[in-house]
C-alpha cells in the first residue's frame, strides 16, 4: 500500500534550489530536489524503487511533476533552466523518448530550458546506447549535466564520452578548498578543461560568502549552495548567507 500511494497518488513534491551565475548574480536555473513525507531520505525512496523494479516509473513521475510545478509557478517565463536528476537506466529505457515528446508538446519551453542531471551512483553498461539517446535528447533542445562529478568511480570516463553541457562538481571539493593545494590543483584543471570544451562548471556546496569569493577568484562562474539560496517551494524562496 505504501508503494501504491507513493507513486499513483503523488505522495511526493519538489523543493527548488537556485544555481547562480556569479559574474552578474543572476539565476541560471533551479535544481528540482525530490521530497516525500513517506521517507526520511531521498535515497530511501529510490532504493525502494530499485527493489521493486520500478525505478523508471518513479524517475518519470518525478520529472513530470517537477516540470508541471515549474511551469505552473510562472518561473518558466523568466527563461531560467530547470535541472532535473535522472538515472542513466531511465535515459536508456525504451519509453523515455515518447515521454519527452509528450512533455515538450505540453510544455514547449522545455526545448531550451530543461537540463537532465545524470546521477552518479549508477553504473553505465551501455555507453554507446546512452550516447545515441543523448543525441536524440539534444536534438529536442534538452541539455545534459553530470551530477556530483568526482564522487562516482567512472565520472571522468562518462563525462568525456557523453560530452556534457554542464559539470556539477561534488560538494567534497568545497570542504577546506582554501587550505587544500590538491583540491585547488584539481579544480584548476577542471576549469581549464571546461573552458577548452565550452562546458559550464557548477560548484556545489557553497555555505559562506568567503567560499563564494574564493571560487570566483579561481575562475568559477556558476555555483549552488546555502550561501546562494536554500532549497524551497517555488514562490517561497529562502535566501542564503550572501
TrEMBL record:
Q: Which InterPro entries match?
A: Cyclic-di-GMP_PDE-like (IPR050706), EAL_dom (IPR001633), EAL_sf (IPR035919)
In terms of Pfam families, this protein maps to: EAL
EAL domain mapped to chain residues: 1-242
The UniProt entry, under CDD domains, shows:
EAL (cd01948)
PROSITE patterns recorded: EAL
Which SUPFAM superfamilies does UniProt cross-reference here? EAL domain-like (SSF141868)
One MF term in GO for this entry? cyclic-guanylate-specific phosphodiesterase activity
Q: Which PANTHER family match?
A: CYCLIC DI-GMP PHOSPHODIESTERASE PDEF (PTHR33121), SIGNALING PROTEIN (PTHR33121:SF76)
State what protein this is by name: EAL domain-containing protein
Which source organism does the UniProt entry give? Sporolactobacillus sp. Y61
Amino acid at each position: 500500500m505504501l508503494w501504491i500511494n507513493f507513486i499513483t497518488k503523488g505522495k511526493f513534491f519538489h523543493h527548488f534550489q537556485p544555481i547562480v551565475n556569479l559574474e552578474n548574480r543572476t539565476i541560471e536555473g533551479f535544481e528540482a530536489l525530490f521530497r516525500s513525507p513517506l521517507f526520511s531520505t531521498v535515497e530511501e525512496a529510490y532504493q525502494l524503487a530499485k527493489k521493486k523494479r520500478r525505478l523508471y516509473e518513479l524517475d518519470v513521475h518525478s520529472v513530470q511533476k517537477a516540470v508541471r510545478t515549474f511551469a505552473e509557478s510562472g518561473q518558466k517565463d523568466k527563461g531560467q533552466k530547470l535541472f532535473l536528476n535522472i538515472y542513466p537506466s531511465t535515459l536508456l529505457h525504451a519509453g523515455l523518448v515518447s515521454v519527452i515528446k509528450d512533455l515538450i508538446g505540453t510544455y514547449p519551453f522545455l526545448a531550451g530550458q530543461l537540463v537532465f542531471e545524470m546521477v552518479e551512483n549508477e553504473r553505465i553498461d551501455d555507453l554507446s546506447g546512452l550516447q545515441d539517446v543523448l543525441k536524440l535528447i539534444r536534438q529536442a533542445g534538452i541539455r545534459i549535466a553530470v551530477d556530483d562529478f568526482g564522487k562516482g568511480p567512472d565520472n571522468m570516463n562518462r563525462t568525456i564520452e557523453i560530452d556534457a553541457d554542464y559539470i556539477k562538481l561534488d560538494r567534497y571539493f568545497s570542504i577546506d578548498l582554501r587550505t587544500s593545494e590538491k583540491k585547488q590543483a584539481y579544480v584548476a584543471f577542471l576549469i581549464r578543461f571546461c573552458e577548452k570544451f565550452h562546458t559550464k562548471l557548477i560548484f556545489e556546496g557553497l555555505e559562506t560568502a568567503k567560499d563564494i569569493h574564493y571560487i570566483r577568484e579561481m575562475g568559477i562562474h556558476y555555483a549552488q549552495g546555502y550561501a546562494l539560496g536554500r532549497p524551497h517551494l517555488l514562490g517561497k524562496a529562502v535566501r542564503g548567507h550572501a
